[in-house]
Design a protein that fits this description.
The structure holds 2 protein chains of 2 kinds.
Chain A (H helix, E strand, L loop, with lengths): L4 E3 L2 E4 L5 E6 L6 E7 L6 E7 L2 E5 L6 E5 L5 E5 L8 E8 L8 E2 L3 E5 L1
Parallel strand pairs in A: 2-11
Antiparallel strand pairs in A: 1-3, 3-8, 4-5, 4-9, 5-6, 7-8, 9-10, 9-11
Chain B lengths: L2 E5 L2 E5 L4 E8 L3 E9 L6 E6 L5 E4 L2 E5 L3 E6 L8 E9 L4 E3 L3 E6 L1
Parallel strand pairs in B: 2-11
Antiparallel strand pairs in B: 1-3, 3-8, 4-5, 4-9, 6-7, 7-8, 9-10, 9-11
The chains are: A mainly beta, B mainly beta.
């Protein structure tokens, strides 16, 4: 079975631009969570979506938004990029809202110049 | 606020030299404590979930234990392929997850 997939793998943007990251969960998984991982730190929770509804939100500014589609794939959007948004963005899927067993994708490496 | 502190930040071992990684936490109602392995440039790989003090889980050379304030990941006779960053995370009663910064393990042959 295919695991969690994310696209693109790498991305370079300049300050002020907008970016959209994409995630496809494991087949049968209905929940998708997004995390930001800055170099040298652990992942920090951004959002969780389940059945197309937001079920959790971390301490991130409104520049960050996400949505989930009927096929359970998800997009993370970041507007007005700042240098500090440079990070590895991870998507994780789980069967339901319980994140006890969540499987991570390989991430999208975003560099903001 | 939930806090997770992992120590040491980095650990270098010789192949076969057993050791332990520490994860100290403060959380409002522990729902679960998780250990992940992360290789460079990749997403975290799930290893264990522990739910209550006294619980232990094993997988190959890894054994995770849990007390009311900390968890240990014991690595027995490590091999070079065990080199990775090991992340600890806690989930509180609200369902929120918080990760530690990780321990970067290097096992030399």
């Amino acid at each position: 079975d295919a695991g969690v997939t994310q696209s693109p793998t790498h991305l370079i943007k300049t300050r002020g631009q907008q970016v959209t990251l994409r995630c496809s969960p494991i087949s049968g998984h209905k929940s998708v969570s997004w995390y930001q991982q800055v170099l040298g730190q652990g992942p920090q929770f951004i959002f969780q979506y389940y059945e197309k509804e937001e079920r959790g939100r971390g301490n991130f500014p409104d520049r960050f938004s996400a949505r989930q589609f009927p096929n359970y794939s998800s997009e993370l959007n970041v507007n007005a990029l700042l240098l500090g948004d440079s990070a590895l963005y991870l998507c994780a899927s789980s069967l339901d809202t319980n994140q006890e067993t969540q499987y991570f994708g390989p991430g999208t490496r975003l560099l903001v110049l | 606020e939930d806090q997770v502190t992992q120590s040491p930040e980095a650990l270098r071992l010789q192949e076969g030299e057993s050791s332990s990684l520490n994860c100290s936490y403060t959380v409002s109602g522990l729902r679960g404590l998780f250990w992940y392995r992360q290789d460079p440039g990749k997403g975290p790989e799930f290893l264990f979930t522990l739910y209550s003090a006294g619980e232990e889980k094993e997988k190959e050379r890894l054994k995770a234990t849990l007390t009311k304030k900390e968890s240990f990941l014991h690595i027995t006779a490590p091999k070079p392929e065990d080199s990775a960053t090991y992340l600890c995370a806690v989930q509180d009663s609200q369902g929120d997850m918080r990760f530690g910064a990780g321990t970067r393990l290097t096992v030399k042959p």
